[in-house]
Amino acid sequence: MREKVEAALAQVRPALQADGGDVELIDVREGVVMLRLTGACGGCPMATMTLRQGIERALKKEVPGVKEVIAV
């Protein structure tokens, strides 16, 4: 599952990088994906929305078995 999550993140990453941010995969456990938002995304007030509406939605669509995405 980790490889599939990495591939899906590679599709999302350019949009984050265009705004000066990025995302780092920390771990995947039992369908829960743990990420760290870095760069401009780390302190952005819209980071929670980016995580839920952007990254989580994309991962659930591309990777069967993803239940939740959390920031650590």
Highlighted features:
72 residues, GMP Synthetase, Chain A, domain 3, 3-stranded mixed sheet
Outline the structure in words.
The protein is built from 2 helices and 3 strands, in the order αββαβ. The chain has one domain: Fe-S cluster assembly (FSCA) (GMP Synthetase, Chain A, domain 3). By secondary structure, the protein is an alpha+beta fold. The longest helix has 17 residues. Strands 1-2-3 form a 3-stranded mixed β-sheet. The two termini are 19 Å apart. The model has no long low-confidence stretch (mean pLDDT 93).
Can you say what the CATH homologous superfamily is? Fe-S cluster assembly (FSCA)
CATH fold description: GMP Synthetase, Chain A, domain 3
Q: How helix-rich are the residues, as a percent range?
A: 40-55%
Report the span from N to C terminus.
19 Å
User: Which of globular, elongated, flat, extended, rod-shaped describes the shape?
Assistant: globular
- Total helical elements: 2
> Which sequence of strands runs across the widest sheet?
1-2-3
Q: Outline the biggest β-sheet.
A: 3 strands, mixed
